[in-house]
Queue: 3 jobs
Job 1
Amino acid sequence: EVQLVESGGGLVQPGGSLRLSCATSGFTFRFNWMYWVRQAPGKGLEWVSRVYTGLSNQEYANAVKGRFSISSDNEKSTMYLQMDRLKPEDTAVYYCSRGGCPNGICDRSRGDWGQGTQVTVSS
């Protein structure tokens, strides 16, 4: 059974940092496109970043470029998202996904998804 479990969310002040983790099991972690996707209240899914776990190729949405850093640990089958200089507009539920954003369009009926972790940026 494929499982993805996010952790590390919470409440942080603007300018602060958080590190999200996505622990996976049930599939071969290496050689997959793994995604971080967020959904703000009342909005649709937004692709944030992705990494190819075989070669560590990384890509970022413009809204987070230079502030967020994605990484993966093939030995632990875990993906991370280091989020620095957080802004109130980063407030959302953050999901990790395997293959859930084909062609850049994220769809929870595609691929595998975790349950999400809430990130709230507020003073």
Job 2
Amino acid sequence: VQLQASGGGLVQAEGSLRLSCAASGFTLDYYAIGWFRQAPGKEREGLSCISSSGGSTYYADSVKGRFTISRNNAKNTVYLQMNSLKPGDTAVYYCAAGVGCIATTIYHGDFGSWGQGTLVTVSS
């Protein structure tokens, strides 16, 4: 039971990428999904969370207005559209499953089923 993030790559500053989060071994329908990132030497940072229905979404201030989370339960996939990327967005990006989103915080300890992340590199 694991989630797999994909879609990372090398992009120039102000460019865009769309990450995908796919599940193996279970359906995502009943889970909130969070996106996180971790840069070398830094703690894992919560970026965004989407409720199981997709009706509620939350964003960290660092990405609000630039990133958009969405889900397609029919495809068992959650997406993170990243626009206006900055060199500071360079990190390994992960998705994980939780029982729900908390409006005030996106904390990695509340999520599980972590898989391998996908590397996003933003060049200046």
Job 3
Amino acid sequence: VQLQASGGGLVQPGGSLILSCATSGFTSGHYAVGWFRQAPGKGREFVAAISWGGGNTNYADSVKGRFTFSRDRIKNTVYLQMSSLKPEDTAVYYCSRRVGSPLKRPSEYDYWGQGTLVTVSS
């Protein structure tokens, strides 16, 4: 199982970015893909998660209405579209996988990709 996050960068407040999580090693079954973030000096924070079938999503209150999921089933890639970005969204973003529903605790996830840095600054 592998996950590879990409798409981070520098964006101005109010701007948008799309993060990608390319997955391999699992193509069917009851899985969920989650996004977490970690700002300097802080713990890993839940951002959003989606069931592999796409029918069940879970968003942190801090990003609800600003971040949304999409999927490319052929490429086995999950996308997180982030809009109306704020300076407090600045962090390293990680994608992860778990067996089961899209839960919020990092300890529930068993595979992690490397992070991609998102910086929101003017």
